[in-house]
Specification:
binds iron/sulfur cluster, two-stranded antiparallel sheet, alpha+beta, metal ion binding, iron, iron-sulfur, 4Fe4S_Fe_S_CS, three-stranded mixed sheet, 9 strands, 4Fe-4S
């Protein structure tokens, strides 16, 4: 069985937003919502400034608070580790939105469905997600954690990864190589 994961290497990210645009096209995301954002975070004091580009999206927790609180099991994990929502059993209580520590979920204003990043599982079925496919600098790495020859396993073995809010023990499957180059922090 495959187990999908992604890495965002902030050292390679140039903040171009191509990933975000590709995501919007793939899933018809409403203008004022997002499944994926790359936010610019300016650190330090002039002239020693440093710009970090940080990805914000669902991090595919293995122990997902959104799944735990869902009263109808509409939020669920697939065998491949993808967190999905079944709109036919969702009752719109929004518990999952409140429970997500990564602020990854929203209500689609057109359909009323709960939406978030799915690694494009519903449109691509485990193939390379839209965001990864368009990244001009290969800052996004995706693959099967159970395949030792996958890009994501090879990258993880040669880079130091940080998991978002690791102290919450949600066991994310989106990891980050934090920005260690350029400028200086305070
Ligand atoms: S990041 Fe939020 S929406 Fe995604 S699996 Fe974790 S708790 Fe659920
Ligand atoms: S809004 Fe839907 S998916 Fe979210 S907790 Fe309620 S029933 Fe589950
Ligand atoms: S497409 Fe790649 S380089 Fe551009 S913002 Fe997204 S992750 Fe960064």
């Amino acid at each position: 069985m495959k187990k999908f994961a992604m890495i965002h290497d902030e050292n390679l990210c140039i903040g171009c937003q191509a990933c975000s645009v590709a995501c919007r096209n793939e899933h018809g995301v409403a203008d004022d919502r997002y499944r994926l954002q790359v936010r610019a975070d300016l650190k330090g004091k002039f002239p020693k400034l440093k710009l970090n580009y940080e990805r914000h999206s669902c991090v595919m927790c293995d122990d997902a608070p959104c799944v735990e609180v869902c009263p109808t099991h509409a939020s669920f994990k697939t065998a491949e580790g993808i967190t999905l929502v079944d709109p036919t059993t969702c009752v719109g209580c929004k518990y999952c939105i409140l429970a997500c520590p990564y602020d990854a979920r929203f209500v689609d204003p057109k359909s009323g469905n709960i939406e978030k990043c799915t690694f494009c599982f519903e449109t691509r079925g485990g193939e390379i997600p839209a965001c990864v496919s368009v990244c001009p600098t290969d800052a996004l790495i995706f693959g099967d954690l159970n395949d030792p020859n996958s890009d994501v396993v090879k990258y993880a073995s040669t880079h130091s990864l940080e998991l978002p809010k690791e102290h919450l023990k949600t066991k994310p499957n989106l990891g980050f190589v934090r920005n260690y180059k350029g400028g200086n922090h305070e």
